[in-house]
Design a protein that fits this description.
The chain is mainly alpha-helical and about 200 residues long. The chain is about 75% helix and about 0% strand.
């Protein structure tokens, strides 16, 4: 059941984020952003190869610490959209499982029972997946809140401009009783609020 639960945690967010992925965003990305994503994946692939591409030994080094992948998952969650973050932890999961299955990586400790090695691998996958999902959810919510605040600020600015236009129109109308002048002032200020066709108004 642990493997089934872990599979659900890994696959379900990936499906939901990629189903709702706006495909046109990739063409709108600027070069620094694309370069940053390239650096992220290049560094992650190199680290995964160094950690899981070698056989475990009794001599412990930094490369025997598989949780060194967490900074890359945090990087993806903080700096990119959810579909990039989910793809990043999927790369970690697939690489860890495939390379461990081929007989390399820090989870195949000499002299240790196979069940213990499998539990260590499942714990690694669970920690990486849950950490990535939690950070992705938090920063996705922050980005959504930021967009809503920007939209609210734009709407507030437009409403303030309309109020200023109406106040100026009211002041101008109170200064003249000539019908032609009043109509000209009214149309002038109305054009600032509502786009209209002159022929249709006349």
């Amino acid at each position: 059941w642990a493997s089934d639960t872990l599979g659900i945690l890994i696959v379900t967010p990936l499906i939901f984020t990629w189903v709702h992925w706006p495909g046109g965003t990739l063409r709108r990305r600027k070069f620094p952003r694309i370069f940053e994503a390239g650096m992220l994946y290049a560094g992650l692939f190199l680290l995964l190869w160094l950690i899981f591409g070698r056989r475990a030994t009794t001599i412990h080094t930094f490369l025997d610490i598989p949780y060194a992948t967490l900074p890359f998952l945090m990087w993806a969650a903080v700096r990119f959209r959810p579909h990039i973050a989910t793809a990043t932890y999927l790369i970690v999961v697939v690489s860890a499982v495939l390379l461990t299955n081929q007989g390399s990586g820090p989870f195949l400790l000499p002299g240790q029972p196979t069940l213990q090695n499998v539990l260590f691998l499942q714990l690694f996958l669970a920690v990486n997946t849950l950490s990535s999902l939690a950070l992705t959810a938090v920063f996705a919510e922050l980005h959504q809140t930021k967009r809503e605040l920007e939209q609210f600020s734009q709407a507030e600015g437009a409403a303030r401009q309309q109020a200023e236009t109406l106040r100026a129109a009211n002041l101008a109308l109170s200064e003249s009783l000539n019908l032609a002048t009043v109509l000209e002032i009214l149309l002038q200020h109305l054009s600032q609020l509502i786009p209209y066709d002159t022929a249709a108004v006349m």
